[in-house]
Design goal:
This protein is mainly α. The protein has 3 helices and no strands. The radius of gyration is 15 Å and the shape is extended.
Length: 68
Amino acid sequence: MSSISPRSYNCKDEELPIVGGFSAISLSRDLNDFSGYSPMFDQPYVDSYNAKIEAAQELVQPNQKRLR
């Protein structure tokens, strides 16, 4: 039996896009402060983060039904 790695969060998997959305709002709102902390946090980083949240949301609740 393979071992399952422990999760580093305490919410349901389907709640992760929502939690990520809240953090994305804070990141966008306070981007100047985050950029001052680390130059890694810039607009391309925010755009990439939002794209990952959208991809996770699509996995949890797809907008389109697929036919086999």
